[in-house]
Amino acid sequence: MPTDLESGILSILRARAGSDRPVTFNDLARRFGATAPMVASIGRQLVEKGLATPSYVINRGVETLYALLPPPAADDSSPPATADGAPPVTAG
Fold this sequence. Notes:
Blueprint: H1 5-14, E1 23-24, H2 25-32, H3 36-48, E2 53-59, E3 62-69
């Protein structure tokens, strides 16, 4: 039975907190019975789409994508809308 690696990786990332350690490509490969280069390729795509945050290591002076973190939570600092959907009125 084929495995949808992208959705599997995303579900693992969604279950993690941003403060957890990164999930390495080798760890993900073991979980899905895939190769690390295959998982790394999908990981790069997820980072490009903004669905995951990259974690890098320095290998012989070269920064290398090594693992993934969940994307940071959206910072919604805008005030909530009123019941009718209109923005709140501020005095000023």
